Amino acid sequence: MTRYYEDFTVGEESTTPGRTITEADIVNFAGLTGDWYELHTNIEYARKTRFGQRIAHGALIFSISTALNVRVMPPGNTLIAFYGVDKLRFVKPTFIGDTIHCVSKVLEKIEKNASSGVVASLCEVVNQSGEVVISYTSRALWQRRPA
Predict the structure, then answer these.
(1) CB neighbours (10 Å) of residue 138?
(2) Would you call 38 helix, strand, or coil by DSSP?
(3) 104-115 pLDDT, tens per residue?
(4) Which domain holds residue 24?
């Protein structure tokens, strides 16, 4: 079922499928972005940190979370654009082997014009232990239902 701006309800929740974070994810992200910071890519360095092991880049986990949310989007071409993100917080580290999923809750709807509106949702990225690792408010621009 195609979904339009009007079809979203403040308070509604959705949960994505999970995805396990791999060493390949981290290495590929480092290569793509050029972020070879040792906390992500050097086992010996990371062992001496407060985490005791390598952690995934926060930006990698955020990016994966946006892709996970796309997996639960309704079919159709009514999503116009990713409109922005607010209050992005990296709450806990994500380690190689962790499995994450997203729980989203619609916070507000903002009419932009006769043809579009913004849906703001709290997105919490949760690991296999039920711990929130990233939290942010996502804003997406959706088409309004045709008259």
Answers:
(1) 21
(2) helix
(3) 999 999 999 999
(4) 5-143
